[in-house]
Amino acid sequence: MNHILAIESSCDDSGLAVFSPTEGIVYERTQSQLDLHRHYGGVVPGLAAREHLHHIPLLLKDLQGQYDLSNIDRLAVTLGPGLAGSLSMGIQAAQALAVALQKPLSGVHHLRGHLFSAWIPFFEKNSSTFRSRCGDFLPQLALLVSGGNTLLVQIDATLDIQTLAATVDDAAGEAFDKGAKLLGLPYPGGPEIEKNARNANPDTYSFPKAFPHPEEKKFSFSGLKTSLRYLLEKIPEETFNAQIFDLCASYQQTIVETLIHKTRQLLYEKIFSSLALSGGVAQNNLLRNEMQKLAQECSIPLYLPHPRHSGDNAAMIAFAAFMDPTHTSADVILNPSWEL
Ligand code: KG4
User: Fold this and answer.
1) Above 70 in pLDDT, residue 133?
2) What is the residue with the minimal CA distance to atom 16 of ligand 1?
3) Ligand 1 centre and the CA of 189: distance in Å?
C-alpha cells in the first residue's frame, strides 16, 4: 500500500492529505483561516494556533468518513519553518495518530514540500516511471516565492538543495501584502493587487529594483514598499481612486521583473535541465507567464504546481515524504534544523 498520511499546519492553513505511490493523491483537504485573519490585516499567531486546534480534528473526522485509516503505512508532518504555535498543533496531532495507528512518523521541511509540489503534475502523468525519470529534469533551478520566503535554489539528482539566492529582508509575498496594505486593499494583498492590475498600465510608475547585478545573489523588497509609501504621500486623495489600478500594475510588474531578472541571470550561469516555480505567489498569472517565457527562451521545461498546491497544503508534505525519506527522519522532531 505505502500510503502516507500528512498534516500541514505551519501558518494559517490546516491541511490533511493521503498520498499513494501508485494512485497519487487519494485524499486532500485544506481549511483556510483567511476570513479570520483578514479582519486583522495579517496572520495573528495565537489565533492561528487556536484555529488549528479546532480544524485538525474536523479534518481527521472527514478523512475517517471517506477513507479506511488501516491503509496508512506511515505519517508525515510539517516540522517547520513556520509559526511555533501553529506547527506544534500539527505535530502533536501527528504524534498522537502515529501512536494510535502504530505507524512511523517523519518530519518534513516545509520548503522542501513547496519545492517538490511543482513535480506533482509530472508525477501524475508518469507515476510508474517517475523515479527513473527525475534525472531528466534535474538539476532544476527552482524559484520559491511565498509570504515568508523568496529563494532561488538548485535541486540536484541526489535531491540535495543548494540556495543560490535569497531575500535579505521581505519576501515577495510580503511585498505584495505590505504594498496592498498601503494601498488600502485587504489581506492577502497578492491576489488583490493582481485583480486591480488587470487591464491597467504597468509602465505608469517606476519603482526601484534591488540588486540588479549578476554577482549580487540576493533579493530585497523592503525598499520597494518604502518607495510606494513615499509615492502615495505625493498623490492627492481626490485622484487616488483613479490611479490605484496603474499603481497596482506598476508595483506588481516591479516585483515580477525583479524575480525574473535574477532567475534569468542564474539560468545563464549554469546548466539546468528544467525550471520550477512554487509557493503562494506562484498563483500570480503575470509571474507564471513570465516564467514560461523564460523557460522557452532557455529551451527547458517549466514545472508548475497545481494552483491548489501553490499555497500551504498537506499534499505537498505527503509527496515530499514520498520523494525524500532520507531527509525526513522522525529524530528531526527533537532536533530541528532549517538547512535545506
Ligand atoms: O505559500 P503561502 O500560501 O503562505 C506562506 O507564505 O506560507 O503564500 C501566501 C502569499 C501571500 O503573501 C499572498 O499575498 C501571496 O502568497 N499570493 C499572491 C497571489 N496569491 C497569493 N501573490 C501574488 N499574486 C497572487 N495571485
Assistant:
1) yes
2) 280
3) 8
Q: Which atom of ligand 1 lies at the shortest distance from residue 312's CA?
A: 3
Q: Fold for 3-118+308-327, please state it.
A: Nucleotidyltransferase; domain 5 (3.30.420)
Is 90 exceeded by the pLDDT of residue 264?
yes
- Does position 328 have pLDDT exceeding 70, yes or no? no
Q: What is the pTM of this model?
A: 0.95
- CA distances to 75, 95, 105, 150, 317 from 100, in Å: 11, 9, 12, 38, 21
How far is it, in rounded angstroms, from Cα 242 to Cα 240?
5
Distance CA 137, CA 130 (A): 11
Structure-block grid coordinates of residue 193 = 493587487
* Angle in degrees, 0-180, between the axes of helices 222-234 and 172-182, rounded to the nearest 10: 20
Q: What's the pLDDT at 41?
A: 85
Same fold across 3-118+308-327 and 136-303 = yes
Task: Please give the distance, rounded to the nearest whole angstrom, from the Cα atom of residue 221 to the centre of ligand 1.
Answer: 15
Residue 106: φ, ψ to 5°: -115, 150
- CATH homologous superfamily of 136-303 equals ATPase, nucleotide binding domain (3.30.420.40)
Q: Where are the beta strands (DSSP E) in the chain?
A: 3-8, 13-20, 24-32, 72-80, 105-109, 140-145, 150-155, 161-167, 218-219, 274-278, 302-303
Confidence label for 45 from pLDDT (cuts 50, 70 and 90): very high
In the chain the first and final C-alpha atoms are separated, in Å, by 29
Question: With 80 as the cut, is the pLDDT of residue 281 above it?
Answer: yes
In which band, very low, low, confident or very high, does the pLDDT at 39 lie, cut at 50, 70 and 90? confident
Report DSSP state, residue 185.
P
| Residue 339 pLDDT | 73
